[in-house]
Design goal:
The protein has 223 residues and is mainly alpha-helical. It is built from twelve helices and no strands.
């Protein structure tokens, strides 16, 4: 970790990544709903393994790299615009594209409660990790701490989706999050020290699940 986060930065980070922050994250599952429907994830152990794979090799890893790069480009308007375009292009399906764009726009809009010049530098069409990374940097939140909180919030949302889908109970969900702590810390450190050359993934089944969700007849989630 870096020098650490001050109390005001911590409070803002907690607000931005709280389930109560109005970005609408509860409406999306990132393809998990289809994975459950196709019996690729059937229990708490399967959900934990699914999330660990996304974190190390899938969409969450790429999000972490984009977040860290946005944090570094906080003062570079053209650089943020290019990064936003790249982040949207990396979305593996139409619904994943809609998810990251919807969350990104909502995050910027809600974060305007804490005025910062970076809000004017961000493009209108901005993926969620780019928006969150740049805004965290503008408020002086250290990159590793910000990344760890961002990834923990994303995983918490996925666990909540798993509970709603009947894969696990609340107590099991807490155990899953506890078990992912070391992986979150490791990925946060690796992404913070990485570059765009580190983008890439191998979570093929998750990408296919996301694509198949677009044609699922009965759904609880939008992705």
């Amino acid at each position: 970790m870096g020098e650490g986060i001050d109390t005001r930065g911590l409070l803002r980070l907690m607000a931005w990544l709280s389930p109560a922050f109005p970005v609408g994250g509860f409406a999306w599952s990132g393809g998990l709903e289809r994975a459950v429907a196709d019996r690729m994830v059937t229990d708490a152990g399967g959900l934990s393994a699914w999330l660990a794979t996304l974190l190390a090799h899938g969409a969450l890893w790429n999000d972490a790299v984009l977040f860290a790069e946005a944090w570094r480009r906080v003062d570079d308007e053209a650089g943020l615009a290019d990064l936003a375009d790249l982040g949207l292009a990396l979305a593996g399906s139409a619904e994943r594209h809609a998810e990251t764009l919807s969350l990104g726009r909502a995050f910027v809009s809600a974060a305007a409660a804490w005025p910062q010049a970076v809000l004017a530098r961000l493009p209108q069409d901005v993926p969620y990790p780019v928006a969150a990374g740049a805004i965290a940097a503008a408020h002086g939140v250290p990159v590793e701490e910000a990344l760890a909180a961002y990834l923990h919030a994303a995983l918490s949302q996925s666990v909540s989706a798993g509970i709603r889908l009947g894969v696990c109970g609340q107590a099991e969900g807490v155990v899953i999050l506890a078990g992912l702590e070391e992986a979150i810390a490791a990925v946060s450190a690796r992404a913070a020290a990485g570059t765009l050359d580190d983008l890439g993934g191998a979570a093929v089944r998750a990408d296919i699940a996301s694509l198949r969700h677009e044609t699922q007849h009965s759904r609880l989630f939008r992705s």
